TrEMBL record:
Keywords for the protein's UniProt record, in alphabetical order: Plasmid
Residues of the full protein shown: 798 to 1071 of 1071
Protein's name in the database: Diguanylate cyclase/phosphodiesterase with PAS/PAC and GAF sensor(S)
Coiled coil segments of this chain: none
A molecular-function term among this protein's GO annotations: catalytic activity
EAL domain span: 23-273
Species per Swiss-Prot/TrEMBL record: Sinorhizobium medicae (strain WSM419)
């Protein structure tokens, strides 16, 4: 038993080592990825439930690694945050997303996710202002999605930054609503333009009673606070029916479309499919 225990330990050790090595390799590869144009943005539509038209597209980052193929953001964004690479990547993607959105019809906005790490860098407001001015995009058509982590640490400083961003004329959305510890409290500290209910609450609809109660409550809350209400992760007609009857403004999910490359999403918008 003893020797097999040690064997297990060694196996674990080897696995850990491989994981560390992969982590390290990704860090190194990421240094050149931006210059080598390996990052791209895919866009997923948010559909307005009243007009049934696309009101916004969320920019979602993809890494097309020359050897490993497409890498999901959940795999590489934490590493980019750890090394600080997310700051430069974030500036690139703000430019790219605004340039792209300027080519869409005026009714279509673009949403960009901001990492809490970007708030630690002094040039965040400047980077957003630059992206707006070089693309000539109407600031009201740029939505910045933040999670409550941004308000959790350095909340005073970050609140000021949010206000500075707001003064540029952009919209601020609270993302992943309901997944954190005190999402509710944060609604009081900053007047968000939009709340996005996390897909975790939609996944077990229509049957999950708790999720249903929460989705209902958030719809009411958002409406009485005058915020646009959005639900992400809608995959079925049943889920859509609930979200619709609760009076949400927008939905996002595979039921309407997966995230698509810029050329494809632009074609769908131009053809009036979305
Ligand atoms: P998120 O901001 O909550 O984005 C929504 C995620 O849900 C996306 O995953 C999207 O593809 C996925 N999704 C959308 N509809 C459905 C659906 O109907 N069913 C299911 N199962 N999933 C759906 P993705 O693209 O893998 O992104 C994961 C996360 O990575 C994002 O979560 C966001 O936190 C982060 N991320 C993505 N792009 C960026 C970026 O440009 N900057 C930063 N800072 N974070 C990003
Ligand atoms: Ca998001
Ligand atoms: Ca989200
Ligand atoms: Ca989410």
């Amino acid at each position: 038993a003893k020797s097999s225990g040690r064997g297990t330990y060694r196996l674990f050790d080897v696995a850990m080592h491989a994981q560390l090595q992969a982590h390290q390799q990704m860090k190194v590869a990421m240094r050149d990825a931006l210059a080598n144009r390996e990052f791209e943005l895919h866009y997923q539509p948010l559909v307005n439930l009243e007009s049934r038209c696309v009101s916004c597209c969320e920019a979602l980052l993809r890494w097309r690694h020359p050897q490993r193929g497409m890498i999901a953001p959940s795999e590489f964004i934490p590493i980019a945050e750890e090394t600080g690479a997310i700051v430069l990547i974030g500036e690139w993607l703000l430019d790219e997303a605004c340039r792209q959105a300027a080519r869409w019809p005026e009714r279509v906005s673009v949403a960009v996710n901001l990492s809490p790490v970007q708030f630690k860098h002094r040039n965040l407001v400047g980077a957003v202002a630059n992206a707006l001015s070089s693309s000539h995009l109407d600031p009201a058509r740029l939505q910045l999605e933040i999670t409550e982590t941004v308000l959790l640490d350095e909340s005073e400083h970050n609140l000021e930054l949010l206000q500075d961003l707001r003064r540029l004329g952009v919209k601020i959305a609270m993302d992943d609503f309901g997944t954190g510890y005190s999402s509710l409290g944060y609604l009081r500290s900053f007047p968000f333009d939009k709340i996005k209910v996390d897909q975790a609450f939609v996944r077990d609809l229509p049957h999950g009673r708790e999720s249903l109660a929460i989705v209902k409550a958030v719809a009411g809350l958002g409406q009485s606070l005058g915020m646009t209400t959005t639900v992400e992760g809608v995959e079925t007609e049943d889920q859509l029916a609930i979200v619709n009857s609760e009076g949400f403004d927008e939905v996002q999910g595979y039921l309407f479309s997966r995230p698509l490359p810029a050329a494809e999403i632009s074609r769908l918008i131009a053809d009036g499919v979305l």
